[in-house]
Amino acid sequence: MDTITLLQPDDWHAHLRDGEALRRTVPDLAKQFHRAICMPNLVPPVKTVEEAIAYRQRILAHVPNGIDFDPRMVLYFTDHTPAEEVVKIKQSDAVNAIKLYPAGATTNSENGVSDIRKVYPVIEQLEEHQVPLLLHGEVTHSHVDIFDREKRYLDEVLVPLLRQFPQLKIVLEHITTADAANFVLEQGRNVAATITPQHLLFNRNHMLVGGIKPHFYCLPILKRQTHQTTLLEVATSGNPKFFLGTDSAPHAQSKKEQACGCAGCYSAPNAIELYAQAFEQMGKLDKLEGFASHFGADFYGLARNTKTITLVRQSIQVPAQLDYLDNDPIIPLYAGQTLNWSLQ
Ligand SMILES: [Zn+2]
After folding, report:
1. What EC number(s) is this enzyme filed under (predicted)?
2. What pLDDT is attached to residue 126?
3. What is the mean pLDDT of each run of 10 residues along the chain (344 residues)?
4. Residue 13 labelled as part of a binding site
5. In the CATH hierarchy, which fold is given to the domain comprising 3-343?
6. According to the annotation, is 219 in a ligand binding site?
7. How many angstroms does the Cα of residue 2 sit away from the middle of ligand 1?
8. What pLDDT is stored for residue 208 in this prediction?
9. Can you give the pLDDT at residue 174?
């Protein structure tokens, strides 16, 4: 087998940033994916349907000619999001979900929700209108160890949340632990998860053994190998609860390689090839299309794509760096390493 043809995939979790960054991020994503869920953690965050539509226009302005790219927008959930905004999301043809960052959890999350119980009236509306709630699933208390934050979130936040709102549609974003994978498996069809390429291909040893590698630093942080193994198993299992979400999160080289480096891996340029690499390691390339191209659209209630892409068995080297901001390049995930499959 030297080629794989897939229905065109979608990326259900991506950070495109804004302004000058869009020159890099939009073409990188749009050359593979038809749709992407565009995360709203800009400065200031995208909090209303109107702001989301304006951001979508700024993204579309950077789509290369001849490429059909459909940004799907998400609102940023704050302590002050009005319950009425949920109906506006439901009626909008550009916005598909709302993203909840616990305040302080990751890049630009200081406007996030301080206590989820405070926003239960909005969540009630999400459940009623079946608008997906996208969760960054980590507690943020300073006394909780960074490697335990996802597990604690399941116990302390998600279990009570689903008890209160059993029909709520939830995507647990970028899961990193066997605990989260098993939690999702135990829930009804209304609970799903995205998985990033870095959490399938790497574990914390890659980041910390033999010198610290800041380009593997992302949040939620890479975990131990046993968790990586479980993520590989569920991603390649053909279970529709798990689908593609790169969490591609660009930060310029100077923001990553410093005493206090930013969290995020830039996987967009070779995202589908990175996933192919992981699926091939498991001998499960036949399961890639469901994960990348079917299950996310089905969960969101959107039509599956109709065009296809083809991957060829031809090794390519990921560039050591790419142009990003003026005089400040970006180092992509897998920089300098060889991928077995390449996008035709
Ligand atoms: Zn993210």
Report:
1. 3.5.2.3
2. 98
3. 95 98 98 98 96 98 97 96 97 97 80 90 97 96 94 96 98 98 98 98 97 97 98 98 98 97 98 98 98 98 98 97 96 98 96
4. yes
5. TIM Barrel (3.20.20)
6. yes
7. 33
8. 97
9. 98
Q: Where are the domains of the chain?
A: 3-343
Q: Is 288 annotated as a binding residue?
A: no
- Judge whether 257 and 183 are in contact, CB under 8 Å: no
List active site positions. 247
Structure tokens at 60: 């579309």
Q: Could you tell me if 184 and 192 are in contact, meaning their C-beta atoms sit under 8 angstroms apart? A: yes
Say what the pLDDT of residue 1 is: 77
Give distance in angstroms: CA of 247 to centre of ligand 1: 5
What's the gap in Å between 19 CA and the centre of ligand 1?
18
304 and 279 in contact (C-beta within 8 Å)?
A: no
Q: What is the CA radius of gyration of the chain?
A: 19
The three-class DSSP label of residue 11 is: strand
Residue 137 and residue 153: Cα distance in Å, rounded?
A: 6
Task: Calculate how far, in angstroms, residue 15's C-alpha sits from the geometric centre of ligand 1.
Answer: 6
**Residue 141 assigned ligand-binding role:** no
Residues 6 or more apart in contact with residue 57 via CB below 8 angstroms? none
Q: Tell me which residues have their CB within 5 A of the ion that is ligand 1.
A: 247
